Amino acid sequence: MHFFRKIKVLSLEQATVLPYLTYRLAMDGCRVIRLEHPVYGDPNRLVGDPVIEGEERMNSYYLAINSGKEALTLNLAEPKGQEILYRLIRELKIDVFATNQLPRNYKKLGIDFETLSAIKGDLIWLGITGFGPESNEAAYDPILQARGGLMELTGEKDGTPQVTGIPLPDMGTSEHCYGLVMKALFVRAMTGKGSRIDVSMFESTTSWLTVPITMTMTFGKTISRRGNTHEFFAPVSVYPTSDGYVYIAVGNDKQFQAFSSLPDFSAVAKDEYKRNAGRIADVKHLNDSISEATKKMTTEELLEKMNKIGVAASKIQTLQEVAEDPLVANKLLKAKDAKSGLELTLAPAPYSTSFLEGNQRVLSFPPRFGEHNEVILGNELGMPTDEIASLKADGII
After folding, report:
1. How much is the average pLDDT of 270-287?
2. Of these residues, 95, 112, 170, 337, which one is catalytic?
3. Catalytic residue status for 170
4. pTM for the full predicted model
5. Mean pLDDT of all residues in 199-213
6. Which CATH class is domain 236-316?
7. Rounded CA gap, 139 and 130, in Å?
8. How far is CA 227 from CA 130, 153, 162, 192, in A?
């Protein structure tokens, strides 16, 4: 897996969708250099609380998904900025160039596939857009959730549509892009050829609608939000206990037989409930009866009963409890700022990479705005100090 440490990624990134992808690549050990405009930068740097005293553009929201990277500022609207970009790609031997700029900016900024692939023929070029490379429509995650059906499927049955608890269009697209970049790296390894990858966040979002679209378009079903219940299985819902809530998911008739055989749930041991279809047909009364029983038990008592009969169940954990869960606590990532002493606790990776294991799950602290300008331009491109100073004075970096 040391192969990934040789991969270099140059990313003109902002917001969440592309920074999360490059964060995933950094977890593999790839070298990730994020590019930002020298004045405007990534707006997410200013989102959340300012947590490092006396510093701007290092707010809490930005810190969550940018560890393990380096940061350059570069004004690509200027010919000199584009010239430096092309030198970076050529002299640093960049493997992947990625951007989530609007397509109308590709040519203007000199970052279009044709231009960059002419500089390095085996370059993997990735462009993430809201609605495809032919569209310049702005796309924020909640807009994609609204248009892409996720909000229609989220919320209480008789309530208003709701956004999901995490930005699935953003992060789901990141995951799809991760797979496509891996495929492109494989193709390049086999053929020596680069790739152009265009990914639509809207297309990514709607790809998750597997059952809803088939049921709607093939079988004429009306699929909409159902709160905590399930369209096709019952009982599946959140049930109150004397000290909290537990989610119970009965997956088949055999499990329900074991469930209804417990003395606490004798009220639902009915012939009409023996089959899942009967339970679905009377799901409200079924869940009301179960709730009457569960609210007399503690969460611990209810979970113990479910575990004994092999029915899947979990307490509804707070985020603090999730982070302290034995299966999570030793997988959390860390990043410490040598300057301020601030230590970040970061979400676990989706899988444990050899790079993370070798680094005891510690990543470099999220880079400050333009933090690596002098190091990369001076040490790696060989620019003298006075030239770098001139670039800064001219607004190029």
Report:
1. 97
2. 170
3. yes
4. 0.95
5. 98
6. alpha beta
7. 5
8. 28, 9, 10, 50
Q: Are 332 and 324 in contact (CB under 8 A)?
A: no
Distance CA 290, CA 273 (A): 13
Closest of 321, 325, 270, 268 to residue 294, by C-alpha: 268
| Residue 218 neighbours by CB distance under 10 Å | 8
Looking at the chain, the whole-number percentage of residues with pLDDT higher than 90 is 98
Q: Which two tokens stand for residue 248?
A: 């119970």
Mean pLDDT of 37-65: 97
Distance CA 388, CA 397 (A): 8
Nearest to 299 by CA among 315, 310, 288: 315
Q: Which class for 54: exposed (0-12), middle (13-18), buried (19 or more C-beta within 10 A)?
A: exposed
Domain boundaries, the chain: 2-207+328-393, 236-316
Homologous superfamily assigned to 2-207+328-393: Crotonobetainyl-coa:carnitine coa-transferase; domain 1 (3.40.50.10540)
